[in-house]
Amino acid sequence: MTVRLTTEPFDPGVLLAEFSAGRAETGAVVTFTGIARASDGQVERLELEAYPGFTDTEIERIASATKARFSLHAVLIVHRHGEIAPGEAIVFVATAAAHRRAAFQAADQLMDYLKSRAPFWKKEHGPDGARWIEPTDQDMADAKRWD
Amino acid sequence: MTVRLTTEPFDPGVLLAEFSAGRAETGAVVTFTGIARASDGQVERLELEAYPGFTDTEIERIASATKARFSLHAVLIVHRHGEIAPGEAIVFVATAAAHRRAAFQAADQLMDYLKSRAPFWKKEHGPDGARWIEPTDQDMADAKRWD
Amino acid sequence: MFGRLADVAGWRERSLAETPATLFALRALLSEESPALGAALAGKGVQVAVAKAIVRGDVALAAGVEVAFLAPMSGG
Amino acid sequence: MFGRLADVAGWRERSLAETPATLFALRALLSEESPALGAALAGKGVQVAVAKAIVRGDVALAAGVEVAFLAPMSGG
User: pTM of the full predicted structure?
Assistant: First the structure.
C-alpha cells in the first residue's frame, strides 16, 4: 500500500504503467484520475492545503482498511497539494484485485472518502476572486454508502 | 469514441497518458485494465477469438450508447485477441466525464458488457489441456443491472 | 463456428456449394451431418449472425451469405 | 487554522506563551479575542485535532501541544 502527497505535477500514465506491471495474479486494475477543471475560464487555479503528518496518516489508515475490506493485492494513492493549474491531475487512485467488482468498489470508495473526509482544503481562484470548495450534500451521501 | 482490437501487447500506462492529456473540462477519468492471470501455473496462455467486422461493430454500438447515457466526454476501449500470456493486459477501458460517478458507472457498465455479451470466445490453455471460458451466472447478473 | 462450437464441429469455416433457402434449412442440414453439432447449435446461449447481424428465429438466406453460429461470448 | 477558518482568523498558525489547560479554555480564549472566529470554530463540520489526532468534546492540553482547527475537508 502506498500513499504519496506531492506538490509536483504527475503523469497518471506513468503511475498506471508501474502499478500494473508484473501482476500475474491480478485480474483487475481500476484507476481514477481527478483533473482540475477550468470551468470555461471560471477557475484559473486551484489551491490545495494539506496538514503534513496528519493528512498522510489519515489517508493511509483509510487505504489500509479498504485494502483489507476488498482483499486488494495493492493500492496506490497519489494526491497533489499546493497550486494546481486546470488540466492537471489532482489525485490518482489505483486498486488491484483478483476480480473486477472488488477493484471497482474499492476505487469508488476511496474517491468518496477523499472527496468528503480526507484532510485537504481546496480553494478555487478565478476572475471573480477566490472561494473555498467544501463537500456537497451529494459527496456526504456518497461517502455514507460505505459506512 | 474509439474502439481498437489488436493482436499485439499494449501498455495501459501509455493509453492512459494519451487519454487524460489536454482535458481542461474533464474532472474524472476512470480506467479498467483486465490482466490475464496465471492462476498459480494453471493457465499458461489465453486464446481469444474475435469475429472481425462483427466484434468491433458490436462494441462500438455499446460504447456509443454508454457514452450518451452517461454524458461522457470520451471513451476508449482496447481489446486484445489471439494469444495472450499471463500478466499481459487483455482489455483496457477508459471513460472521461465531468464528475466521478458517471465515469465510474460507465466503466463498470462497459466491463460488465464486455465480460458477458461482447463477441469474444476465450480459451484457457494449461498443463491439463484447454477449456472454454463462458460467462458465469454472476457475469450475466452483473450485465443485467444496466438493462 | 465460434468458440466451443468449432470444437464440436471439427471445423471453423466452410463454404457450401448451394446456400439453403432458410436458416432452419441450414440447421437441418448441419444436424443431419452431425447430430452432436445440431444439438450444440440448439444449445443454451448460442446465437446466430447472418451477414454479421444477429438474427432470431428463422430467416431467408441470400445465396452465398455468411452465417455465423456464436457460442456464449466472454471478453474482458 | 485550516481551510476557511484561516481566512476568518486572519492567521494560520500561532504559538501561545501559555497553553490553556483544556481545549474548551482555548476555544474561550480565541472567542474572546474574536467572536467571529469563535462562531466559525463552533460551526457545522469543524473538527479539532490535538497532536495530530482527531478529538471530540473537551480534552486536557499538554504544554506546547499542537491544536489544529479543521474546516470541512474536501480532497480529490
Answer: 0.92
